[in-house]
Amino acid sequence: MSSFSHKNLYNSIRGFATAIHSSGMILQKDFDLLTHLVKHVTPKSKKTVDSDGDLFSNGPTPTLPRPSSTGTDDLVASLPRPFRKALEAIRLKDTRRLLIYLKQISYMEETKLQEVISSIPRTIITELFRAIDPFVVARDADPTDQAHISHGAFQTLSLGATIDVWGVRRVYSQLLRYMLVLLSALKNSGGVLLAEEYGYFLRCAASASDLGGIKWVWHEMIRTNTAEWRHGGLYNEFISARFLTNPSYTSYDKTRRMVTGRSLHQSKFILHWRQVRRLDWLRYQTRLNKLYFGLNKDVAHAEDLVRVMRKNGPAGRIFHFIRRDGIFMDESLACDLMIAFGRAGSLQFVKIVILEHIFGIDMAKITSDTATPINYSLEFSLPRVRIRPTVLLMKAVVETYGSNSEIGLALQLVKYISETYDIPIPSSVWKDLLEWTYIMSAPPTSTGWKAAHMFSKVPKGEVVELIWDMMVSEPYYVQPSFEHYDILIRSIAGQHRLDKLLPRMREALELYNFQCQEYEDAVIEYVQMINNGVRISETIHRYQRARFRKATMRYSIQTWCRKFLDSVRAHNPTNPLLVVAVPDFINEFRAFIPNPAIYRTSSGYVSLFDPQRETDRLFFVEEFPLAMQVKNKLGEILYFDTSTRKHVSASTRYTLAGRTPISYFSLQTLLTTTGRSKIPKFQDRVVVGREVEQSMNDSEAKSSPEQTGDTYDDDDDYY
């Protein structure tokens, strides 16, 4: 079916629902309220050129009669305080304050909330949903945006107030609840969502990693007889949400969306029962230390999110509906479909239908078994291109083939797109290539591919350095960020190549020092704002962002130091590695060395404790039940009932725990630490240490002492 008639018929942003209504449908009270909210500027006098070419002034522009704002003022004044404050926050584009008052709105009585929704203009509800778009919230109110927080960082940095046990940012789970409360009131008042608003709901459910919520929102269009409003933009949002194609939907954790041999069993190939048992056992061992991170919320047992997307049936049905309805296929939609089929391992479909038929990239000389080995003499034929690729296709290629451990093929395609269409390879694409290579080359992922006897899927560790050298050399000359160094150093440490580790760590330490300076500037600006008695959201966000960046970068450096000490092996007691290298390393990176520092010698272990620093210890706080699903030799499904434990760091200075007002801290403390918990005095540390030891020996689950309140505002500093 030709898609020409559908290309420009409807607005791609607002959708069919808005296009069918004329401007005459806008109510007078809608116009009055919007006029009241928008700041008007008096037009200046306008100069015009007459027929003789001389400039003359028309004088002051006559003021047009405006609608009376009496009704608007009365309407705004009659609204409850949370609604008035929310409208003011929308006008000021203050997302942080809007979230605070949105929380108060969600706790209003149901009947009162329904009355308010019925009384305000419908356009205001749309503006409210638009203002709490998860992408806007991530930009303005989430200091952890664009950052992957591992399970280890979650415990060590005490991020319980930011991330829940599912590994999801709490702000998006709360935001989904607020939006559902507003939707319930809207439906009870006889209204329905517009096409644009469905997109915001899909984004919010996906940001909360709620697959059941995503399907519910999509099927809500059928229940409300609005399915005919679905256009290309909505299909794009649904595919992105359903298959978690946006990295933010999996909290920037690539291990949650990588394809494994176990997930492809019985859908792409059949593994021997011994291989299946070994893969199940590997998954069991790795899952015990991850809480509920990356699990499906809709099932009782521990099911990884990628398992839900292991079959190509759902993606195939959506592709059929798009072709049946004549939806225009743009690059964004094609890339999302490409990633969706990649989740199921359908690389043949990606190769023939998407890359060759849609983008015109001939991959006849590239086979799916071309994994890690990189051939630079590949030739590509260039037929008629239907869609000209951009950076968006580069990212989709890396996501699709990287998640399937086809690193060499992903690199070849990225280089081809860059050279053929003269598109510079951005730093983010290089980072994704490095990270996918490191994940697939390191345990436990590499162990899983080897257990499935798919050795071509395991790239060598040197490939990470190969991609790094390509990135920083001609013709790309990409300036590495701290995240690039983090991936490279972890890869080098995993290969026990200590001679290359120290130079890279010193280079990365310079970037950390720059971040420390940024943090100090943000702290001074933040303290000055508090002392002046004002509130500026940009200043708060800068402070929280800099605080988070400094804490996570320090945690990464501490992890490198721990890996270095764990890699020390020497059977000769006079080995220079033990006598010279390790002491010099501890002295150089003393601020980041774990306390106590433990490393192995030929005669045992050495433990160095610094009494002037906090002890790096984790203590148990809570236990969660976990049911693991495995298969036996006969193919029967068995369930192993076990549990996973949550721990919290005993240190406070360099974590992100606490929201104590800054008046309790000196400026020197604020500049040198990131913790906002009250720091015990030196003479109290012995008592605190004993309490920590007692809590670690206590096997009973206790309530978490972490602050679990909202993290997008520091109200304690204002009230």
Automatic annotation (TrEMBL):
Intracellular or extracellular location(s): Mitochondrion
Skewed-composition ranges (Basic and acidic residues): 690-703
Compositionally biased intervals (Polar residues): 58-72
One GO term describing the cellular component: mitochondrion
InterPro entries: ATPase_expression_mit
Coiled coil: none
Main localisation: mitochondrion
Keyword line: Mitochondrion, Transit peptide
Region Disordered, residue ranges: 45-75, 690-719
Protein known as: Uncharacterized protein
Organism of provenance: Daldinia eschscholtzii
Species classification: Eukaryota, Fungi, Dikarya, Ascomycota, Pezizomycotina
